[in-house]
């Protein structure tokens, strides 16, 4: 305990927390400053100057004491308490309302921003209090512990009586006195309580009283064993995951029992045995320190908890345990100093202290590697290499942790573990998350059947005409021909009207979809907001979706509009909000090579003038990586009819062992009844897809295949389609999935991005062991039965490009233009390239990602930057019109986070968006949720009175 007098503690317990606090507040201020009034800006300047001064004073004084080699005096403890408690009082009673006024949406600052000062100044207060405890106990004479315990127990009783007295005070005078006294008591009463409690325990543990020496083992069992285990049990019983965090893992109980055992063991006689015991106690010191830090923000609530519920004393268990643990280690070091050099003892303590953090880090890093390998396999697979099985158990454990972190209540940190969850999110998830549908997707692929599919896509397709919602009442368009890039520039202006039945508390959004013809790109977007035309910001799609979702769930009439790709060539447009009878205007600018027809919410628009259209043939990028074929040019290509063959995808997922013989009979029956000219091919499908080599015995391969994991049908279809398009041939596959579990198969909504791989027909088929062959569509709603589909291998003509002799692609024989990926690589477009050609290049890049998704991670940032430079919308970006500068600042900050992380990670999750902090580091403050509950109660009491 006397080591706390060393001035180096000021650098750790004050300088560092104050620096972090300044960084956190600076990040918040940079986002919301445009929303603040002058009085709030003044409060920010005051708080910033105060924190800078506080940090500078502590740092300077610590360095001066270290230079003078003197211990911290008692005067420092008194002054530090006054300064920090005064700062917290100002922050809670005055500053918080001005720093984060009601006009600032909670999602921009995080729901815990009001607790920043309390959380980061509390370590200094705790250190100063313990310093005063040390100085208050004379070292040269015995001291009684009972008076200190008596005063500590009297504080809750006194606070209770004072609360009853405050409730009896009448009128505004009573409210004013209550405001001052309650705020003061919230800080002073816990401080007095903890001071005398810590003093009494310090007297006992340091053997300045005989009580500890006479019953030392019982005290250790109580403080190190009974209280921690009872606290873990009570925390878990109060709510399903736990009030203060999810500590239900057997590891927490096991470490608590191990810690108690090590602290209660008698010291061995030999020096090596005692050194080993010191090492073991140093290992569990990390466990003790963790719970002390977790409960540190809740210590002011301990008085209230003792008053309300007897188990409130359990909140003090980490503090008591830390005092006992520190004293036991001090005894060990004192007895070993003559047996070992000082450096050896210091190394032993530090090595032990690092065991648990390093072990936890190693486990998290393994989870990160496994998760990223799974994300790469699912969302960026390399079809040129055979799949490498990964640690499915470790992946599922990591996914369970991610899921446990997703549902966090705004006021109580009931999910995850404080600080550990933050470390996990930073190390494993890069401060992002996985959406609910992706969690379900990965679980079903690698062997954990999900009960339901989570709907967590904020930009999921919405009904084209939601019942009772806003309607498109007018659509106007204007087109001009731009000779410099030989393309049309067309504006489509939409007028949307809300019905008169819209209620003020339930303002709807407008949502519609439109399909872009080949060779037509979006180049601009606007939304009229409050009498001004706000052009959309072209941003990374996930960041834009996150901001749009926050505004929708904000509960205020803010005005966002978003335009983005849904899938394939389909766009989604959303505008929010609409008041009763309100008319709003929005518009989109298109750039297209030829006149096109566009259907917007039931209205057919013709963009461009065919009479003024110059002749268009093949148009290619500078290196002919991507080629645009006009309708006329495609009609001049030769027609061919390719030979179909069956490609059977055989289900070898978990639980299908007994069906292998039935699958074999079903395949034989289909080949006999509906034969196709080509030689059939086979692939074995579970979590991985393994093609059976040509000429090999497919029946034996089916028998030998191990059944494990889920039926990852999406991966099998994508791999087969990509290989078909990359290697065009005079034959083409008719895909048949052989399974009785089609409803449990892991499927994408569609495979429109691979439409170039199935020019004959988008049909694929499901073959059960009993029942007829079922057709489904690769282009739309891939899991739904397609009743009007053609029979397998029905004759269909396609166009061969560039010639029949050595075709590089086969195109559907329709009246549409086509875009052909001519080379296996598409470089980032140069800045000087014409906008339409940039759009063509980016379209080719999207085709490349569908064929070679492993290239996505390296090429995603330059492709997004090319979209930003050109203004061309792509599936990686979205146009977002925002109302104010704060929303734009929030978008920029979230975009930076997303662009630094893995492309498959998500900006948010399926929790209420207001519970998602803007910056991942803010989750550090979840442990202060209890104090937030008290703060809200204090704010409501005067109004209720």
From TrEMBL:
Sorted alphabetically, which InterPro entries does this protein's record hold? MSEP-CTERM, PID_CTERM, VIT
Ordered alphabetically, the record's keywords are: Membrane, Transmembrane, Transmembrane helix
Indicate the segments forming the VIT domain, all copies.
460-592
The entry's protein name is MSEP-CTERM sorting domain-containing protein
Give TM regions: 46-67, 74-92, 115-137, 149-169, 181-205, 217-238, 250-268, 275-295, 301-323, 343-365
